[in-house]
Design goal:
The complex is a heterodimer of chains A (110) and B (111). Chain A is mainly β and 110 residues long. Chain A contains no helices and eleven strands. Chain B is mainly beta. In chain B, a hairpin with a 5-residue loop joins strand 7 and strand 8. At the A-B interface, strand 4, strand 5, strand 9 and strand 10 of A face strand 5, strand 9 and strand 10 of B.
Chain lengths: 110, 111
């Protein structure tokens, strides 16, 4: 079946640093989504990408839908302590179940 | 409601008992999904509804798991004769031809 490779698995960064994480897929997706999950909560949608090549920002977050439709990255600029959490990428082809990456666990050191 | 809601938020049960988990999707969302997340892991797809029908049940781990959706809205995931390996967070999401929005999950612990 479809699989997403998400990297890195975990990151430890200093407050104020920029962060980058990415996902690659063995197959093409029509939609790429990035979610953040805090402990004890469900994933919260950060950015949704619907078009190859699309670059979208949401505050300090920027994500891109790769031209090949098989990859996406998420950047976080000027990290702050509340950025701590697990970030998941997810891909979809239409109104179908999402395929999730295994997550990137982000720790921010103040 | 404003978002996806799930109940109960936590459930502790004894091995062998049946449990029912409920999901109320965002009003107007036609698609509803159930996922399972084990401790420290990613999300595992269980079943998907479009309206009241389930075009994809491929993720249900065994015949002890079933789900239904009525009125194109509320869904119930039932686990019969629970086993310890069923312990996980069960997440529901809904969508309307786009991004999926998740509920807070039900934390199930089977003793």
């Amino acid at each position: 079946g479809q699989q997403l490779n998400q990297s890195p698995q975990s990151m430890f960064i200093q407050e104020g640093e920029d962060v980058s994480m990415n996902c690659t897929s063995s197959s093409i997706f029509n939609t790429w989504l990035w979610y953040k999950q805090d402990p004890g909560e469900g994933p919260v949608l950060l950015i949704a990408l619907y078009k190859a090549g699309e670059l979208t920002s949401n505050g300090r977050l920027t994500a891109q839908f790769g031209i090949t439709r098989k990859d996406s990255f998420l950047n976080i600029s000027a990290s702050i302590p509340s950025d701590v959490g697990i970030y998941f990428c997810a891909g979809s082809s239409g109104n179908t179940p999402l395929v999730f990456g295994k997550g990137t666990r982000l720790s921010v050191i103040a | 409601g404003a978002g996806v809601s799930q109940s109960p938020s936590n459930k502790v049960t004894e091995k062998g008992k049946d449990v029912e988990l409920r999901c109320d999707p965002i009003s107007g969302h036609t698609a509803l999904y159930w996922y399972r997340q084990s401790l420290g892991q990613g999300l595992e797809f269980l079943i998907y509804f479009q309206g009241n029908s389930a075009p994809d049940k491929s993720g249900l781990p065994s015949d002890r798991f079933s789900a239904e959706r009525t009125g194109g809205s509320v869904s119930t995931l039932t686990i019969q004769r629970t086993q310890q390996e069923d312990s996980a967070v069960y997440l529901c999401a809904s969508s309307n031809l786009g991004a999926q929005y998740f509920g807070p999950g039900t934390r199930l612990l089977v003793l």
